[in-house]
């Protein structure tokens, strides 16, 4: 694997190899990449989890990490993403994690630069590393993803997480279903009554309401959304024994999820973030080893 821009890049066998390697890293395995490669993380949209956990992952692998701040870069003078990447290639960067507001930004890079490209999120398109850490979290919890019922709830149309997970989880044999308001269902078939599916779900995966991507705002008040599509305390009580709550975060407390459920026994929200480091170590190592 030379790049990771979409979950479609990965076979089931490659996904499984990443899960196994992430588990090995969590159990203390070390990498042979120490001091061999230089990476940088180019984030043109805000991020806390993806940017910081990639940086931790790169440092744990022993890589050299060169800081990049988009707000102080020559992109503000009009330099394009392509030209920025060519600059970084010229000065010796081996791999880049890139988050950009433009869907499919990677199409102008892959095959045109020697730098490996890892997609840290493209607009409303893909978020493959989030999908892999979500899959890892489910796999660790249940020992398998196959035959698990995963209910993804919320702003499906604007969610790159929903799109990456829908593809990958289905290929791994999970039953994936969506709950959302009709206005936010995009290309997906969605159930509009959360209460119809809450009791049968092994995983309830909540999504952030992405106000910044809405052309029409104010369809719901926060309270209305919470009562209709949020995980309220009453709905959590209907979840079956052993079922878990996930959210890629950042979460809006008392909108997608009742504030008191964020750290409840069923919640794996912070576990997802912890797992993200090991999964991103495994992805980065797989890509860089592919260059050797
Ligand atoms: N889940 C996620 O992508 O979070 P950040 O936007 O903070 O990276």
Automatic annotation (TrEMBL):
Residues 147-285 form the Aspartate/ornithine carbamoyltransferase Asp/Orn-binding domain. L-aspartate binds at residues 77, 160, 208. One of its GO terms (cellular component) is cytosol. GO terms for molecular function: amino acid binding; aspartate carbamoyltransferase activity. Its EC number is 2.1.3.2. One of its GO terms (biological process) is 'de novo' pyrimidine nucleobase biosynthetic process. It comes from the Bacteria. It is an enzyme of class 2 (transferase). Pathway: Pyrimidine metabolism; UMP biosynthesis via de novo pathway; (S)-dihydroorotate from bicarbonate: step 2/3. InterPro entries: Asp/Orn_carbamoyltranf_P-bd, Asp/Orn_carbamoylTrfase, Asp/Orn_carbamoylTrfase_sf, Asp_carbamoyltransf, Asp_carbamoyltransf_Asp/Orn-bd. PROSITE patterns: CARBAMOYLTRANSFERASE. Keywords: Pyrimidine biosynthesis, Transferase. Residues 3-140 form the Aspartate/ornithine carbamoyltransferase carbamoyl-P binding domain. It holds the Pfam family OTCace. Carbamoyl phosphate binds at residues 49-50, 99, 127, 130, 249-250. It catalyses: carbamoyl phosphate + L-aspartate = N-carbamoyl-L-aspartate + phosphate + H(+). Belongs to the aspartate/ornithine carbamoyltransferase superfamily. ATCase family. NCBIfam families: asp_carb_tr, PRK00856.1. Catalyzes the condensation of carbamoyl phosphate and aspartate to form carbamoyl aspartate and inorganic phosphate, the committed step in the de novo pyrimidine nucleotide biosynthesis pathway. Heterododecamer (2C3:3R2) of six catalytic PyrB chains organized as two trimers (C3), and six regulatory PyrI chains organized as three dimers (R2). This is Aspartate carbamoyltransferase. It comes from Psychrobacillus lasiicapitis.
